[in-house]
Amino acid sequence: MKLWRIPAFGIDRLELSEAPEPKPRAGEVLVKVRAVSLNYRDLLVTLGHYNPKMSLPRIPVSDGAGEVVAIGEGVTQVKTGQRVAGIFMQNWLDGAPNAQKHRGALGGDIDGMLAEYVVLHESGVVPVPDHLNWEEAATLPCAGVTAWNAVVHAGRIKAGDTVLIQGTGGVSIFALQFAKALGARVLGTSSSNEKLERASKLGLDAGVNYKQTPDWARWVLQQTNGEGADLVVEVGGAGTFTQSLKAVRIGGTVAQIGVLSQTSESVNVVPILHGQIHIQGIYVGSRAHFLEMNRAITQTKLKSIVDEIFAFNQAQDALRRMESGTHFGKLVIRVA
Questions:
Q1: Which candidate, 85, 198, 94, 184, places its Cα nearest to that of 143?
Q2: Which of 134, 235, 261, 325 is 20 to 30 Å from 41 at the Cα level?
Q3: Could you say which DSSP state residue 234 is in?
Q4: Rounded distance, CA 166 to CA 202, Å?
Q5: Read out DSSP for 151-204?
Q6: In this predicted model, what pLDDT tens digit does every residue of 222-259 receive, in sequence order?
C-alpha cells in the first residue's frame, strides 16, 4: 500500500512511501481509507511545531473515513463493509478526560490516517452518517466533534442564544451549523468580506471584518444590545483571547480551542473575575461525543462544507493550502 510519512519535519520533507498492507489482530479492524481531511494541527505536526520531540517517522493526519474490509478475532462492534471514521483520541471512549484517555491521538501520538489502509481497534472507529460522501465524512473526527463539544457541552446553547465564531475554518463553520440547528443567533469575524458573505448563506446572522474593525468586541456588544455573546468559539488563541473576553456576556462561556495567533501582551484576568466568565478548554472530544454528534447530523441531514479536494499524491499541496489560510470550511485529500 501507499502512505505518507514524516521522516523529518517540514512540508517538503513529507515522503510518499510504500509498505505492506497491515493485518488486523484480535479486536482490531482493517479500514480501506477513502478520504482524509486536514486540520491546522496536521500542519503543525508536519512542521514540527506541535511536538518537536515526536518520534519519527510518523504517518500524519488524524481525520479519515473509509470502509472496513477485514476484522480480527473477537470483533463484535464492527462488520466488514461498514462505513466508518476513526476517532481522534483512540483511548477516550466516554466520560471525563484524563491523562490516559488523552494518549493515543491519531497523527501525533500514534500513526494517523494518511495511508491507503489503516488498522484501528474496533472501539476506535464509529459509523458515519449514510447521507455523507467519503469526503464529507472524513471532516468529522476533529473539527466536527470539537465544534459539537464547544456548542453543545461547553456552551449548552439553546434557541435564542448568541454564538460568536472566529474565522471560517473547519471548526468555526461546524459551530455555525450546529448553533443554527439549535436555533441560536450566530455572529462571526473574518479577514475576508467574501468569506463572510459565503458564511451568511449558511445562516450567519451578521459578520464583521476584523482587519477593518480591530475592536470587534465592541461590534459584538452593539449587535447584542450591550449584553455580549453567550458563547465565543475561540480559535484564534492568545492574539484574540482578550477581545473574546470583552465580547462574551457576564456568566457566558469562552470555548478555548485554537492557537492560530500569538501576542506579546499579558492577559488581564480581571474581566474573567468581574464577568464571571467560564473558560473551557476544548480538546476535540470522546467517542461518545462523536456518536451523539452523528445522530444529530443524521437527523438534520447536515452536510459538511468541503472547500477543495486534493488527490492522494497532492498531500504537500493540501498542507500548503492549509498554511495559506485561504480555505473556507475543510480541505480534503481523496485517498481511493
A1: 85
A2: 134
A3: E
A4: 15
A5: IIIIS---TT-EEEEESSBHHHHHHHHHHHHTT-EEEEEES-HHHHHHHHTTT-
A6: 999 999 999 999 998 888 999 999 999 999 999 999 77
Q: 233 in helix, strand or coil?
A: strand
Q: What are phi and psi of 328, to 5 degrees?
A: -125, 115
Question: Beta strand pairing status for 83-86 and 162-166?
Answer: unpaired
pLDDT at 271 over 90: no
How many angstroms from the chain centroid is the CA of residue 138?
11
User: Cβ atoms within 10 A of the Cβ of 194, count?
Assistant: 10
Copy the grid coordinates of residue 332: 480534503
How large is the C-alpha radius of gyration of the chain?
A: 20
Mean pLDDT of the chain: 96
CA 22 to the chain's CA centroid: 27
Q: Helices then strands (H, E): number in the chain?
A: 10, 15
Under 8 Å between Cβ of 252 and 276 = no
- Which positions ≥6 away from 287 have C-beta within 8 Å? 87, 92, 93, 94, 123, 124, 126
In whole angstroms, what is the distance from residue 197 CA to residue 229 CA? 21
**Residue closest to 45 by CA, chosen among 92, 87, 86, 105:** 105
Q: What is the pLDDT of residue 258?
A: 76
